[in-house]
């Protein structure tokens, strides 16, 4: 049994995490929100209070923290008595925050792989580049560290684990498809930090096919999918954290990630990329100022948080799993549909942030209750899927399945 | 009779001007090239020497100069004994350089209207915003100041003047069409300073139609033209310096400027503009750095000078003039065709720089010989066209005409 949560980050996902923690503070205890910019944390606290989101009376506080500073993070963990840290700040912070957790004994949760700010699209094996190097260290310290506990990675890993445990004797392929059929009404915007968003797509795309890493260019391999609720949408092979962990942990021969993109997004992205404006390497202006182009692109784009009030439409994210059960070939699509407007009304963020933030809170609750407090490092597919998906059914991200028996809600 | 030339600027156009001045230094005397960056000036001097371009023995020197500093510019004029200043630096410099000329008595030549760095696409009347305010001052000082003596504005103004004097009793409209049918082989590049290039197109487009200023959006009004050599090309209404001066000085009811653009240019431009990346107003990055997006775009784009070696194809720029002669409606197209590769072989710059730089040297030669040394401020259409066009026939930009009598070279 662990209690008291420290949320690191103050973006759209942190906002969702704070609201959901508040809604479940009978399980989670005190809540602290910390990021470099105190005002952003305070705005989240104000938003939680405005919605009266705290289920029971309890602490809800904002703190300024540079989470690259391990000692400062340790001090805040100690001061707040946090036994669970939900890291939804920049992916550049993962290793620092993990160090603070290992040294204080607090449980660690994140939603995306660690990134080095000076490297884009590192080559696989991704988790093995940073996180998995610290497995022994976590186990020795008895620290629970749950990696990639957002939606994708996160919930889609649990879908894969469920399929692996319940629906197949042998899985041949997992295709994770992420479609955002929402409309934010702007000329162009990214749904989360543009810097992180673009970094995903500027290098080579890596997928795991027939038991080996396969590389191609971004937007090179596209396919039209026909998914529940959102209908026909084009998605493209994209490198994504869970391709590595699922192929490695569940030993599935083919794991691919497909991200939906409209032609307009691809055009804007292509122009920016070809001009060199998505580069993380500094350039020198004629006036001698050293500038990182990607940071300027980020500065001119809408703040992803600002999109939420006008965002309409739905997301559909799921796993198409193919394989064999009882000697027969079969395929199932396990998925969730989320609604941007409903997300905004509940927690003040759009659907993309909602799908990323709610699972991290579910993971925290399972650590609090002990079910996922495994005292070692684990990816989501190494943990029992049913308590996680069952909890998500209750707190906002219900699971559905579509197979030869139809399209229906899954109960756990 | 005036002698000795000070060239201000060290870009592609300055390179052309230096070569052409050298080729005609029997008329022009000593040549000095000055800009903020001495190395750029020295590179131009080296290029002129490499081609053995100096017609007769004579001085050819590079100097560092911040031409915003009027006193420094005056001192350099005095030191070099320059009686003619060709300003082909940034359009932000015009007023400062003009001050230095007025105070020293040197003749002034430029190729584009003055611009305030903090304003984009100022509303008409353009020349009246800055240059024409100083007409009396020039006249009083007896200083020759020739405005807009590049190709467009410049040669196209002389074409209009020629049509006005020789081919029409009454002109109804002048449509200036500028088509670059060249290919630089890059994903995207501008043919001159990107900052200046984009500034032309980010605001409203102003044209003079039926004796009044008419405004529309950039790329809103397009038309396919079928021109000599370059064939069918689409061009769009664009605001341009000479629309103002020609309508005002020649009292023509309709003066329009059409700039040719390919769909790819328009797409890149539209993306950058809609994202706010062409803004001359600073933005703040997440790290707190103040940056002007347009300057970052400039920094990532190819240096226009670097395009020259690979540039192939031709430009066609001319005036379609409609009106009445001897009671009959007629129309003539007066134009020049230039070749990128030939320009590079002769002076080491591409065709766009060539067409802008050669006319400024022709203007300098006409000041040197006295024909254009009018001791006041003048736009090109206020000066006799024939000596100018006759000289251009000899030094690289021959004039052709297409009318009811066919398509032929014009001799003067």
Structural commentary:
2 copies of one chain form a homodimer. Chain A is α/β, with parallel strands linked by helices and 412 residues long. Chain A folds into 2 domains: 5-151 and 350-395, Rossmann fold; 155-349 and 399-409, Dihydrodipicolinate Reductase, domain 2 (2-Layer Sandwich). Chain A contains 15 helices and 19 strands. In chain A, the strands form 4 sheets. In chain A, strands 10-11-12-7-15-16-18-19 form an 8-stranded mixed β-sheet. In chain A, strands 3-2-1-4-5-6-17 form a 7-stranded parallel β-sheet, with helices on both faces. In chain A, helix 5 (94-104) links the parallel strand 4 (84-87) and strand 5. The longest helix of chain A has 19 residues, at 351-369. Chain A is globular, with a radius of gyration of 20 Å. Chains A and B meet through helix 11, strand 13 and helix 12 of A and helix 11, strand 13 and helix 12 of B.
């Amino acid at each position: 049994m662990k209690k008291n949560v420290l949320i690191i980050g103050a973006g759209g996902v942190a906002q969702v995490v704070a609201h959901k923690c508040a809604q479940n503070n009978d399980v989670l205890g005190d809540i602290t929100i910390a990021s470099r910019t105190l005002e952003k944390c305070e705005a989240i606290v104000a938003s939680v209070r405005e919605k009266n989101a705290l289920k029971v009376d309890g602490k809800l506080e904002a703190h300024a923290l540079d989470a690259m500073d391990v000692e400062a993070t340790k001090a805040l963990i100690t001061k707040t008595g946090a036994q669970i840290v939900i890291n939804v700040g920049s992916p550049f912070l993962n290793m620092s925050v993990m160090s603070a957790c290992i040294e204080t004994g607090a449980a660690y949760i994140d939603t995306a792989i660690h990134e080095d700010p000076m490297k884009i699209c590192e080559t696989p094996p991704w988790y093995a580049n940073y996180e998995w190097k610290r497995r022994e260290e976590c186990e020795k310290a008895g620290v629970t560290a749950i990696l990639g506990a957002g939606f994708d990675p996160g919930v889609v890993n649990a879908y894969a684990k469920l399929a692996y445990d319940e629906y197949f004797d042998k899985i041949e392929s997992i295709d994770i498809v992420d479609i955002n059929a929402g409309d934010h009404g702007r000329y162009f915007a990214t749904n989360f930090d543009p810097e992180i968003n673009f970094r995903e797509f500027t290098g080579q795309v890596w997928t795991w096919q027939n038991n080996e890493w396969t590389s191609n260019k971004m937007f090179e391999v596209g396919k039209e999918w026909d998914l529940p609720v959102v209908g026909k949408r084009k998605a493209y092979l994209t490198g994504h954290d869970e391709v590595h962990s699922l192929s490695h942990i569940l030993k599935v021969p083919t794991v691919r990630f497909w991200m939906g993109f409209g032609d307009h997004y691809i055009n804007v992205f292509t122009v920016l990329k070809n001009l060199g404006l998505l580069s993380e390497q500094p350039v020198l202006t004629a006036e001698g100022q050293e500038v990182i182009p990607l940071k300027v692109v980020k500065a001119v784009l809408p703040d992803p948080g600002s999109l939420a009030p006008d965002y309409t439409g739905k997301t559909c994210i799921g796993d198409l799993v193919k394989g064999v059960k009882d000697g027969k070939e079969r395929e199932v699509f396990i998925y969730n549909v989320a609604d941007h407007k409903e997300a905004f009304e509940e927690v003040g963020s759009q659907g993309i942030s909602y799908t990323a933030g709610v699972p991290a809170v579910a993971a925290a609750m399972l650590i609090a209750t002990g079910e996922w407090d495994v005292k070692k490092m684990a990816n989501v597919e190494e943990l029992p899927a049913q308590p996680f998906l069952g909890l998500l059914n209750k707190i906002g991200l219900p699971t559905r399945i579509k197979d030869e028996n139809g399209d229906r809600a899954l109960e756990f």
